[in-house]
């Protein structure tokens, strides 16, 4: 069988050397916090001089890892001379797929088999329709976690839809469990064929770094919920890296270093430490969670914790710096919201509105003094704290949102962006439904398209 003309063009002399050099950049850049942002803007505007359709790279990312892989995949291929267009899945429609000749899809799965937020519009508007993609050659990388029942479910569903629509696979779908090195090496191998070389080294994840547990404080003694702790960590070598409000850390527990856990960062680099809010997880058999148990009980203050920072582009303020923010969360999701309020306090930009829910005001009002201070300073225009067990009928954040629908509509009409951080099960779904009731499905879709509705849910 002969190769398609576009594929044969890639098999040219010198590609191997170029791609190997690009790969070195690929590995080094994975640890950077600004590289992905700059490259993403560049690949959106790249148009081949000869008029050929660029290779489409579309990603569906909830916490940023799929976006990182997609961005660096684009960088590697384009440095090797393969024109690339990088977009979120929801930014493309049936017309884009009709014009493309080849495409790579990098898709995470959110919760129990759901599509990430930046793929939801594509699912509703494109995957719900019958389209003919017999002209399209595709590759799919599905990211997931085997602890969930529906492992890589969205990537698998996307792959099935592409094949049912007639798309021709460049290679078999690759399923990745928790950034598994072997699976990612397979992805690298397949990219080497797309780039016209078989001499591409394996992908390597960013290295873990030693941090010291500098402080730990129990925030909710006597609570009906699990013990929650405020933690502070500092780099063992004294060199503080950069991060932004909205970013995450991954912690590698000593008992199982192959199963890292992610936590939202509650602090800024100017504070000199990474601050976290961690709820101690206890399983039905009485055993503590691997990561939460280590951080809240197993590790002593002063012990070394293996940690690495991870940019979370979808939850940063990028594009919303000049907007008011409606910050909604529950439980330890407060951590991701605190970072945003601190960022606003540092620069005096438009104020925020915080809506936060927990169990009892007497035990679970985390960082209440700081929140009240921000209200007094005008950093927070308002703070609505909802404690479900302090009422005869359980009241949650979504109920307060519905009761304040006119204020929500006013803030949104004035240009506010909405950020949600907390548990996917229960809170995030209920808040999404409440916002849909207030703004309408079309209104919520518009906010998502404009980057004004962002979630960090787990």
Give your account of this protein's structure.
The protein is of the alpha/beta class. The chain is about 35% helix and about 25% strand. It has 15 helices and 17 strands. β13, α10 and β14 form a beta-alpha-beta unit. The protein starts with a helix and ends with a strand.
Tell me roughly what share of residues is in helical segments.
25-40%
Mean pLDDT across all residues, rounded? 87
Structural class: alpha/beta
User: Uncertain spans, ≥5 residues at pLDDT below 50?
Assistant: 1-49
User: What is the number of helices?
Assistant: 15
Approximate strand percentage = 15-25%
Total strands: the figure is 17
- Note the main sheet: 6 strands, parallel
CA-CA gap between termini: 46 Å
Dominant shape: globular
Estimated radius of gyration: 23 Å
Descriptive keywords:
458 residues; alpha/beta; 6-stranded parallel sheet; 6-stranded antiparallel sheet; 15 helices; disordered N terminus
Short characterization:
This protein is α/β, with parallel strands linked by helices and 458 residues long.
